[in-house]
Amino acid sequence: MSKRKRRAIKNQIIADSKVSAVIKELRLPDLQRECIMRGMAFQVVCDSSIPKLNSFLVKNWDNSLDRNLITEFDVWMDNELKSIGREDLIHPMLSLGHTENKDTGQVVKRKIKPIKPQKKKKRERTNDGIFKGTKKAYTYELAKQGIPKPEAIKMVKEKFPEANEKSVSIWYNKAKKLAG
């Protein structure tokens, strides 16, 4: 398999895992709402289980959102309930696009915010271009302070027990060369 294909597969797996992390936070009505906005058939939404809704949402994550479909779904659902003679189940709290105001008792359109994947926070870098909070950055900091090499290695090992002495030694020498 070519490098390009492997990279594309890896990127797709990463994207799917990010979407899955967002989907885990959704309640059933939110999940149904997201699937409807992405074009899932109304009857299929009603018949689907949570895993089916999740899989549809992952596959169709990039589809454009149509918020008008939620209102159409509420009308369709009310008509379905009327057709089977269950008008007692029609209530604004059960619709996906409307809710009842507790103070006045009026039906109010629910504001629907589409979900977006969380962006990763950018990591800060030191003046040397090294990520802050790492073993390497700590080694550079100790070298700039003028701490002797054996003591610096010991301090890095105390703070980061998994640190490799050889790597710390190399970083220390490089930091000394850069400092001049």
List its traits:
180 residues; mainly alpha; two-stranded antiparallel ribbon; 2 strands
What does this structure look like?
The two termini are 46 Å apart. Strands 1-2 form a two-stranded antiparallel sheet. A hairpin with a 6-residue loop joins strand 1 and strand 2. By secondary structure, it is mostly helical. The model has no long low-confidence stretch (mean pLDDT 80). It folds into 2 domains: 3-109, no CATH class; 135-179. It is elongated. The chain contains 8 helices and 2 strands.
Percent helix, as a range, is 55-70%
Strand order of the largest sheet: 1-2
Unreliable stretches covering 5 or more consecutive residues: none
The shape, in one word, is: elongated
Cα separation of the termini: 46 Å
Instruction: Tell me the number of strands.
Output: 2
**Number of domains as seen in the coordinates:** 2
| Number of H/I helices | 8
Strand content: under 5%
The sequence of SSEs as H and E is HHHHHEEHHH
Rg (CA only): 28 Å
Mean pLDDT: 80
Give the helices and strands, then pairings.
Blueprint: H1 3-23, H2 28-37, H3 42-47, H4 50-59, H5 68-83, E1 98-100, E2 107-109, H6 135-145, H7 149-159, H8 165-179
Antiparallel strand pairs: 1-2
